[in-house]
From TrEMBL, chain A:
The keyword Transferase applies. One of its GO terms (cellular component) is cytoplasm. One of its GO terms (biological process) is glutathione metabolic process. Residues 90-231 form the GST C-terminal domain. It comes from Rhamnella rubrinervis. Keywords: Detoxification, Transferase. It comes from the Eukaryota. It is an enzyme of class 2 (transferase). This is glutathione transferase. One of its GO terms (molecular function) is glutathione transferase activity. Belongs to the GST superfamily. Tau family. Residues 5-84 form the GST N-terminal domain. It catalyses: RX + glutathione = an S-substituted glutathione + a halide anion + H(+).
UniProtKB/TrEMBL annotation, chain B:
Pfam families: GST_C, GST_N. The keyword Plastid does not apply. It comes from Rhamnella rubrinervis. Residues 88-214 form the GST C-terminal domain. One of its GO terms (cellular component) is cytoplasm. This is glutathione transferase. Belongs to the GST superfamily. CDD domains: GST_C_Tau, GST_N_Tau. GO terms for biological process: glutathione metabolic process.
Length: 233, 223
């Protein structure tokens, strides 16, 4: 698929996973049309482009759909080869980046989701401990990956920055609703500083939801989920 | 390559270690294999994989790479002969998609069919069949997911062919057959017969015995 073919991204303004694709496209200065999907009434295009999962994000390049947020980011890096690279060129550094992104999705994000949407104080406390513990590992990883530079990717935002940074608005909302600190100055000072740098980056600035706006949306989503899943007595 | 130091920490019947063995074999990479005791994990394993404490771990020049799909990509990035992932970016994305789909959707359902009982088991069997049918659509009429030759998805997902048969035998279920999934069924038979692939698969009897014992322990004491 030629770099110049039309690019469309199906996502939502609030989805951290859609944000990953948007940041990656912005880093590469790719012009794209953003389609803000209504997930309660999914478009024909979405249902056709991701017939397996029927989920966003979906990147449509020309007539070819690419699904799964991290796979989309790798695809963007593979197609638009101009600098900066999103994934490191060194195989070992690449493997490290792939590992941490997968870790965040498999181990860390479920805990975050559980804290934001979950019910039951004890269960939440356990998830908070789990999430904070995981972030201490991510803080260590930041030290190793960044090698003293501002981002996991070094001088520029890279794969792990994108994979993790997309959750920052959701982290802030979760902290606010539960009166907790996940990104803690005491335990993860480097990540706290990194978070600020990440949010100010031009590729991120326009696509990170405002905390207040996301909080309003999350409140509605939480109520809906609680109505659908009342706590077991 | 002379002077390469490649070590694989694995477990004899781990399908995730098997993926890595296949990739290394395909590329003709010599390596030292270390059989880990998963009940008493070695200090080496805990040091190499503090986040998950699991095998497989590939150690190259003393540096550990963990998570089997990450290891496959690392192997393909490092040793350029007999490429595993396709060259075309879109085809690469498709390959990564199917490997992830199999891990996220087919494997848990298959495990459910093996570990659960009663209604939950029936539900898991149905889910496994549905997801395997979707996986079949990724294969289509091709001989292998990689086309005429095996590729990333074959190496990542090929173990499911063997483990589906183990599950069917031990848990007494039907997951994949020539009638319901002719294309996938044919690939389940074709892939393990390739010499490079066959050599690495543990003997069927050993696998069956191990899984029968595991199943017995899981279902022991249930009514």
């Amino acid at each position: 698929m030629a770099e110049s073919s039309e690019v469309k991204l199906l996502g939502t303004w609030w989805s951290p996973f859609a944000m990953r694709s948007r940041i990656a496209l912005n880093i590469k200065h790719v012009n794209y049309a953003f389609v803000d999907e209504n997930l309660l009434s999914k478009s024909e295009l979405l249902l056709k482009s991701n017939s397996v999962h029927k989920k966003i994000p979906v990147l449509i390049h020309g007539d070819k759909p690419v699904c799964e947020s991290l796979i989309i980011v790798q695809y963007i890096d593979d197609v638009w080869t101009s600098d900066p690279s999103i994934l490191p060129s060194d195989p070992y550094d690449r493997a490290t980046a792939l590992f941490w992104a997968a870790y965040l999705d498999e181990k860390w994000f479920p805990a975050l989701k559980g804290i934001l949407f979950g019910q039951g104080e004890d269960a939440k406390k356990a998830l908070v401990d789990q999430a904070v513990e995981a972030l201490v590992l991510v803080e260590e990883a930041f030290g190793k990956c960044s090698k003293g530079k501002p981002f996991f990717g070094g001088d520029q935002i890279g794969y792990v920055d994108i994979a993790f940074g997309c959750f920052l608005a959701m982290i802030r909302v979760t902290e606010k609703f539960n009166d907790i600190k996940l990104l803690d100055q005491a335990k993860t000072p480097e990540l706290v500083k990194w978070a600020e740098r990440f949010c100010q980056h031009p590729a991120v600035n326009g696509v990170m939801p405002e905390t207040e706006e996301l909080a309003e949306y999350a409140e509605i989503a939480i109520v809906k989920m609680r109505d659908a899943n009342p706590p077991k007595s | 390559m002379a002077g390469e130091s490649v070590k694989l920490l694995g477990f004899w019947c781990s399908p995730y270690a098997l993926r890595v063995k296949w990739a290394l074999k395909l590329k003709g990479i010599e390596y030292e294999y270390v059989e880990e005791d998963l009940v008493n994990k070695s200090p080496q394993l805990l040091q190499y994989n503090p986040a998950y404490k699991k095998i497989p771990v590939l150690v190259h020049h003393g540096k550990p790479v963990v998570e089997s799909l990450v290891i496959l990509e690392y192997i393909d990035d490092t040793w350029k002969q007999n490429p595993i992932l396709p060259e075309d970016p879109y085809e690469r994305a498709v390959a990564r998609f199917w490997a992830k789909f199999a891990d996220d959707k087919c494997v848990p359902a298959m495990m459910g069919a093996f570990t659960k009982q009663g209604e939950e088991k029936e539900k898991a069997v149905k889910e496994a069949q549905e997801n395997l049918k979707i996986l079949e659509s990724g294969l289509g009429e091709k001989s292998f997911f990689g086309g005429d030759k095996i590729g990333f998805v074959d190496i990542a997902v090929g173990w499911i062919g063997v483990w589906v048969r183990l599950t069917e035998e031990v848990a007494e279920v039907n997951l994949v057959d020539a009638k319901t999934m002719p294309l996938l069924n044919a690939w389940f038979e074709r892939f393990p017969e390739l010499p490079t692939i066959k050599e690495c698969i543990p003997p069927w009897d050993k696998l069956l015995e191990h899984n029968r014992n595991f199943h017995k322990r899981l279902t022991a004491g249930s009514t």
